[in-house]
């Protein structure tokens, strides 16, 4: 019998390195700078640290070994930016004691492992025969409407905006949205689905014009709205495309864990040279530490205060909402004393805010159903192509509810697009599954 070195050596080493890097950057760089915003630190008990790391390792073992399906992309990205930070940071954020933090980490781990196991099995493809010309006409119309409306309300900016100057621009953009609510939906669908489609198509068909148009369009959106995530999406697309590029063997998902550790270390090194916390704040704090901290905060607050039962959302007509502000601002005021601070929750934190532990588990169930559908509609497409399109909608799950991510940040739009996009790629990149046939479960951890 072959020794399972990946499960007993490689995965533990990768997760432990990530845990060490995350703890170091939070304790030494993030918390001292951003304590006033609620990024507080407490010295952890070594026993609690060991248990949390073991939970993170076991959760990683449950993930698909190779990134061969669309669901694998989502699961690995979500593990790195939300699940692992939530589990690991439970022991050194002061909002919950060790036992309470570990219980939260255990529940999140069990829910996520259930989702990982639930996506296994055969896939019956679901694709729709739609004229490629019709698809491109619809996408062109959507893009034109988005950029024209944005130009009329905000004025398109073609000059690069410095990262430190985006906050005023974002406030101006939010103010100009009054009365044109549909524009915010169009902008995020353009940024999270349409532009990455153009980039992915250009990369995997070797048509640089497509890639250029996607990147230029994304830069215009960033410089016009001030959303930093739209700018960081560009390197994220290119990195995912590189990791998932066509090769003899599919990519190992652990590449994303190694990459996250490298991101923490490189950002801190560059900041030390520049004598500035900018990259650590924008990358390590924003994408990794924040979901871990905010999950603890949401669970602590809504364990001791009324839950919202979607009274601020789709159940508003039927539920007596108990707060004057929406949950992100309620939490921002509670943790930092700033009612103008929007502490946006990830999918698990939002689930708990709405229905407690049942809501957290329910968010996992909704994710599982979504991933099963996503796998069906993406059969026949190169996994790198799918990965580029799914990256930012998945990252959205780290700072918003799963329902909001579906409707406003491109998860549903991505499913629709993947179901109808032409399968005109090199057939050696991804096997084409004829109608009525099933795609067997890929090898996972053996």
Protein architecture, described:
By secondary structure, this protein is an all-alpha fold. It has 16 helices and no strands. It folds into two domains: 5-123 and 252-306, no CATH class; 132-248 and 367-420, no CATH class. Helix 7 (181-204) packs antiparallel against helix 8 and helix 10 packs across helix 11. The longest helix is centred in the C-terminal third of the chain and has 31 residues, at 347-377.
Note the run of SSEs as H and E.
HHHHHHHHHHHHHHHH
Strand content: under 5%
Specify Rg, calculated over alpha carbons: 21 Å
Low confidence ranges: 427-446
Mean pLDDT: 90
Number of helices: 16
**How many strand elements?**
0
Looking at the structure, what is the overall shape? globular
- Indicate the multimeric state: single chain
Global structural class? mainly alpha
Biggest sheet statistics = none
Q: Work out the helicity level.
A: 55-70%
Distance between the termini: 11 Å
In the residues, how many domains can be counted?
Answer: 2
